[in-house]
Structures are given as structure tokens and as C-alpha cells.
Write a structure and sequence with these properties.
CATH topology of the largest domain in chain B: Rna Polymerase Sigma Factor, Chain: A
Shape of chain A: elongated
Strand content of chain A: under 5%
Radius of gyration of chain B: 20 Å
Number of helices of chain B: 8
Order of helices and strands of chain A: HHHHHHHHHH
Number of strands of chain A: 0
Distance between the termini of chain A: 72 Å
Largest sheet of chain A: none
Helix content of chain A: 55-70%
Number of domains of chain B: 2
Distance between the termini of chain B: 60 Å
CATH superfamily of the largest domain in chain B: RNA polymerase sigma factor, region 2, helix turn helix motif
Helix content of chain B: 55-70%
CATH topology of the largest domain in chain A: Four Helix Bundle (Hemerythrin (Met), subunit A)
CATH class of the largest domain in chain A: Mainly Alpha
Order of helices and strands of chain B: HHHHHHHH
Number of strands of chain B: 0
CATH architecture of the largest domain in chain B: Orthogonal Bundle
Largest interface: A-B, 53 and 61 residues
Oligomer: heterodimer
Structural class of chain B: mainly alpha
Strand content of chain B: under 5%
Number of domains of chain A: 2
CATH architecture of the largest domain in chain A: Up-down Bundle
Number of helices of chain A: 10
Chain lengths: ~210, ~200
């Protein structure tokens, strides 16, 4: 069997085991066995792309608005059987302030960093970014927001905050490694905007 | 009670959320969205390679789901039902944009698609050296027809008979396009690795 004969049969064979003369060729031919190993590595490696990305919180905000506009969302009926009109739950002022601080504070910080960078060492600039942004939202703030939510929503938002905090950590690390990279700066800005949106959505759910 | 799908803490299980969503419970919609958003969004992103389109399609897929949730009878798993809906939403969009989603039955193989005996030193195999970003970039570079089949089979785990039905091609065509997609990816990944190694 030649390599061409073997490779012509690959589309039918690749997801199963080679048998008979194909198996013998695979064992004897380094070129074909490398090819099969690569194709299997690609097929296995592709699994990392499943559920690998997170949509921005804006997607849920849009869905929510559309559900309300189409009248698909109902609130519980009262004892008399009257449908209660949707009511917006206003969040305490301190929650609003935290969310605003996250974005505004970070925007200012980026501006400061932009002008400070030519005078500072790269590592120092990155450390400033990290040091100054950390207090903007702490684990305590997250816990205070989570405490306002109904039990059914708490786990959901806990997971959302974990994801977005991990995103912020990644973005911070990336900016620390590449302090002059505009893309890394936008990445971090985007991460903070996402966190602000998660807070905003949580506010609408506060009890 | 679907104990298996019961989530930790006080969060609704998927089965409870489905029941409550059927009567329009806002929290239940949100629980279902959070359970499935990553997979649906990743599918849309892989197939369109554009974050704005992917967000738009994710939104459309979930809205269709919530509009039709009253008809879900549980004959298939909820996730299967939702993902099928998402795939259809994406394919409809791609078709509207005039992109090739149904692979061409029999293509004349080009030089680059035809496996050939390589002379000279062998490249090291890819196994263990493919990271997520490389893979993401390479999949994004595939032609839409190849990409659709590759994402459905290797990323999402659909079988060839299911792909043939969803996309509207033969099983043999699905197999052959998948093979070509993997061969193209191999070439892209090897090129990107060589470029990385040669970078000063």
C-alpha cells in the first residue's frame, strides 16, 4: 500500500481505528503516522473551543428588554388573580455609586497611565495600574451586591462575577506584561465595563 | 425532580427553570441563559468569526428559545434543542449573507489539499502543542463551508448524519469536507508555529 492509497482512505478512517493493511501501513510509515497524529490532535484540540467564550452582559440586557417588550415575562399573580405590572426594583444609591466608580475611575486611570508612561518604567506603570484599580471593586463589594439578591439569582451572579473578575485579572496581567500596548489597555477597559454591566444587571435583581 | 441537573446552593435546576420559564418567570429565563450562554455564544463566534455578529446571533437564538419554550416537551435534552436552534439561526444568517455553508459535493482537489509525500526533514507532530488562541485563529481562517462542518463535528460533537441533515449535504460530503478542513488547519497551525519559532 502506498501513502496515497492510505491517505485517500483517511476521511473514512480518521475517527476510528485503522485495520488490516491500513493499520500495517500506519505502523510502518512515519509520514502517515505523523499525519494521523496531527489530525487527531486537531480534532481533540478543537474541544477547547466549545463554551470557551463569554458574551458581553449587553446581550442579556438586550434579551431582557426584548422579552419585556414582547410581553413574554410575567410577574406572579396576586391572590385576586390580577397580573401585577412589571416593577423596576431600584438599587440602593451606594450600589449605583460603586458601578459608576468602576468605569469612571478606570477611565481616569487609563488617561493618567497614558501620560505617565513616558516618564516611568514599564513595570512601574503596570504596577500603578494594578494597585490603583484593585480598591475600585473588592471582594467585599461583590459580596454586598450578592447579599442583595434572591437565593435563586445569587449563584448565577456569583458565577458571573467570578468570570468577570478572572477576565480583569487576565487583562491586568496582560497590561503588566505589555504596558505600552493599546490593545491590552482596551482589553482591561472592556473587562471593567463588563463588570459594571454585571453590577447594573444585579441591581435590577436586588430584593 | 431532575436531581442530576440540580445546581449547587439555592439556584434553580435546569428542569425547574424550564417549567418556570414556560409560565414567563423572569428569573427562570435568566438562569437558563446563564447555564447555556457560553456554549451558544462560542458556537456563534466560531461560525461567524465576528464578535458583534456572534452577540447578535446569541441574542436571536435565546429569544427564539424563550418564544418557543412552551412547546418544549422534553423528548430531547434541552441543551440539544437549544443548540440545534442556535445552529439554525447562524446558518440562516450565513445564507442570507450569501456565504457558502453547504459544502460543494465534489471539488477538484487543489495542490494544497492533496496530501503528498514530503521530502526532507519531518516536522514535529502537533500533538500537545496546540493552544486555544492558535486553534481559534486557525479555525477563523478556514473557508466558511469547511468551518461549518469542522465546528459542528469537532467542536460541537455532532455526528456526520446529523450534520448532513442540518446543513443539507450527504454524509460522505460531510466526512470529506471535515477531512479537508483538518488538513487545512494542520497547514495553518504548522505555518503559525514555524513563524513563532523564527520570530527574533
Amino acid at each position: 500500500m502506498t501513502c496515497t492509497d492510505f491517505q485517500n482512505k483517511l476521511p473514512d478512517m480518521i475517527d476510528g481505528e485503522a485495520a488490516g493493511e491500513h493499520a500495517a501501513h500506519l505502523k510502518a510509515c512515519a509520514l502517515c503516522s505523523d499525519l494521523v497524529a496531527d489530525l487527531r490532535a486537531i480534532s481533540t484540540g478543537a474541544k477547547v473551543l466549545c463554551a470557551a467564550d463569554e458574551p458581553s452582559p449587553r446581550v442579556w440586557a438586550n434579551i431582557q428588554r426584548a422579552l419585556e417588550a414582547e410581553g413574554l415575562v410575567r410577574t406572579p399573580r396576586q391572590a385576586g388573580g390580577v397580573l401585577v405590572p412589571p416593577r423596576r426594583r431600584w438599587a440602593p444609591a451606594w450600589l449605583v455609586a460603586i458601578a459608576a466608580l468602576v468605569v469612571v475611575g478606570f477611565g481616569l486611570l487609563i488617561q493618567q497611565n497614558r501620560s505617565a508612561q513616558p516618564m516611568q518604567g514599564a513595570k512601574e506603570a503596570a504596577a500603578t495600574t494594578r494597585g490603583a484599580t484593585e480598591p475600585a471593586t473588592s471582594a467585599d463589594d461583590d459580596q454586598q451586591i450578592l447579599a442583595q439578591l434572591s437565593p435563586a439569582m445569587r449563584t448565577t451572579y456569583e458565577n458571573n462575577l467570578k468570570d468577570v473578575n478572572a477576565f480583569i485579572r487576565d487583562a491586568n496581567d496582560s497590561l503588566a506584561r505589555n504596558p505600552n500596548n493599546d490593545e491590552a489597555r482596551h482589553f482591561l477597559m472592556d473587562a471593567y465595563q463588563q463588570k459594571a454591566m454585571v453590577y447594573e444587571l444585579a441591581m435590577d435583581r436586588t430584593q | 425532580m431532575a436531581g442530576a441537573s440540580k445546581k449547587q446552593g439555592d439556584q434553580l435546576s435546569e428542569a425547574e427553570a424550564i417549567d418556570r420559564a414556560k409560565s414567563g418567570d423572569a428569573e427562570a429565563f435568566e438562569v437558563l441563559y446563564n447555564l447555556h450562554k457560553r456554549r451558544v455564544y462560542s458556537l456563534c463566534l466560531r461560525m461567524t468569526t465576528n464578535t458583534a455578529d456572534a452577540e447578535d446571533l446569541t441574542q436571536e437564538a435565546f429569544l427564539q428559545l424563550f418564544r418557543k419554550i412552551g412547546t418544549f416537551r422534553g423528548e430531547s435534552a434541552f441543551s440539544t434543542w437549544l443548540h440545534r436552534m442556535a445552529v439554525n439561526v447562524v446558518l440562516m444568517r450565513l445564507r442570507r449573507k450569501g456565504l457558502q455553508v453547504v459544502p460543494i459535493e465534489e471539488t477538484v482537489e487543489t495542490e494544497e489539499e492533496t496530501p503528498k509525500k514530503e521530502l526532507g526533514g519531518q516536522d514535529p507532530v502537533l500533538a500537545g502543542s496546540i493552544d486555544r488562541l492558535q486553534m481559534q485563529k486557525a479555525v477563523g481562517s478556514l473557508p466558511p463551508g469547511y468551518r461549518t462542518i469542522f465546528v459542528l463535528h469537532d467542536v460541537e460533537g455532532y455526528e456526520h448524519n446529523e450534520i448532513a441533515e442540518i446543513v443539507g449535504c450527504s454524509i460522505g460530503n460531510s466526512k470529506s469536507q471535515l477531512h479537508k478542513a483538518r488538513m487545512k488547519l494542520r497547514e495553518l497551525l504548522k505555518t503559525s508555529r514555524t513563524a513563532k519559532v523564527n520570530k527574533p
